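On clarity, I found the account of how folds are encoded harder to follow than it need be. What matters is that the chain and its backbone geometry are given together, residue for residue. I therefore recommend that a typical entry be quoted early in the introduction. An entry of this sort, consisting of the sequence and the corresponding backbone structure tokens, reads as follows:
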Amino acid sequence: MKIISFKLFCFLILIAQLCAKESNFSTQTIDLGLVVSDIDKSLKFYKDVIGFQELDGFKVSGKFPKLVGLTDGAELNIHVLTLGDEESATKLKLMQVSGKKKSRIIKQPYIHTVTGFSYLTIFVENVDKVLRSQAMKPMLKVPKYYQMDYLRIFAFLC
């Protein structure tokens, strides 16, 4: 009886594992696409101040951007930034779009004033290292935060 109970137990465990819901996501990270008003300034900020590394970017051109609703027909030249070398590292994809209609910069005094992404949280080992970087010095003149396009990068000053 004990042998049958043990076999039944093992069989039920196997069935439970097979029936358990598996995630349909191939990775637990996401990539973010961010349209900016000045690609050069944005790249300088994310690379020199925050410490992102730039990977090979890519273009989306021809009829495809309009066909799938990405743009009004404008080509996309996407710069891919990452915080590490791991394959699963989150990628920030920056682009400046020269469409038929000019991009608007929305004034957002609080995170709840406009829907959509309002900030990025980037975890660092040493906040002082970021705040003391040469590239950060011009931004420290701005009280408590630096605003770039639609994002607010908070630099908590002690």
